[in-house]
Amino acid sequence: MTPLVLERTQVQSLSPEEVLRLRADFPVLSQQVYGKPLVYLDNAATTQKPQVVIDRITDYYAHENGTVRRGVYKLSEQSTQAFDETRRKVAQLINAASASEIIFTRGTTEAINLVAATFGRTFIGAGDEIIISAIEHHANIVPWQQVCLERGATLRVIPVSDAGELDLDAYEAMLNERTKLVAVVHISNALGTINPVKTMIDRAHAMGVPVLVDGAQSTPHMAVDVQALDCDFFAFSGHKLYGPTGVGVLYGKMKHLEAMPPYQFGGDMIHTVTFEKTTFAKPPGKFEAGTPAIAEVIALGTAIDYLQAIGLERMGAYEHELLAYATEGIQEIPGVSIIGTAKEKAGILSFTLKGAHPHDIGTILDREGVAIRAGHHCAQPIMDRFGVSATARASFSFYNTRQDVDALLAAIRVVNDLFN
Predict the structure, then answer these.
(1) Which of these is catalytic: 223, 378, 388, 414?
(2) pLDDT, tens digit, for every residue of 254-266?
(3) Burial of 272 from C-beta contacts in 10 A (0-12 / 13-18 / 19+)
């Protein structure tokens, strides 16, 4: 196997001492599985939660529980203030121009579906085209596929190389007067590829085409600046950002949010209601019908505070070091094939092992105390592209250590001994 060399970042990384101190903030990491210390390497699926986030949820329900924006009593006022403060924190995290451009959803999937159901069904018609890439998560494939079926539009797919890198020449050739939207992932959850989304956005905008970026994997691992990217929409999930499940974010440029119709209808997204006519609130309220996930949103704000105190760029630099260490080590194991060898990669290592199905790999690793993901990772088209039904995937966080990687490699050797 030709050694895969990953370029190293110049950002100052976390020290081993800092990592050990930060690990202590995550109670789940102190447990044992089958009598062995837990090595959690499924961070691309969901990250573990620091104690401060867990405490914030408990504290909210114990002392502040009251619906937001509707009450004039103290609990409601406190909840509303904390809820609105998180919106401001999110805007600051991704450098949105205004907190009003931040819409709370249940996650990345709902955020993309919101754009598909509103922007897609309003501005895309028969003969139009939507461009996505070959390495998208199903959540950024199926909604656009359905819009195309309903509207008579065409879904076009940017091809990917054997390394897992998008063909930018093919992408540029696809852009034309019929293109109404580009929807592309920032970092592939299946391969770890970091796409050059700024370049892709600039090329689309040169043709007057808006761009949605799926930032589910990028937001937890790098600094994101939506104004510098100049993307039209950006989506991410709270539970991958060390926050609670059930909450996510859609950023949209205000000009689009104002032009899009509501996604759902009900309480709190209206301005006036009569039996003859309803008028709607301005964004973001127009897109947040009903009682939101108040505790989860507030705890997401706590998670953002926690991460910013560490530094997302420093976290990303450290995770890149872990990826390079794991990549070097896994290439020494006979029968291993790495799926996704892009020059620019995040902390995701997908692989197959000769003679062993990924589900067998995952099961045996679990008995060794190592938690990874095995399957198609909600990205079946890219599995087809590489001629595999599934891969085993280890994904890294700043709370992982080189000892975790060593445990992963030792467990893979156990699998190799059993099957080969």
Answers:
(1) 378
(2) 999 999 999 999 9
(3) exposed
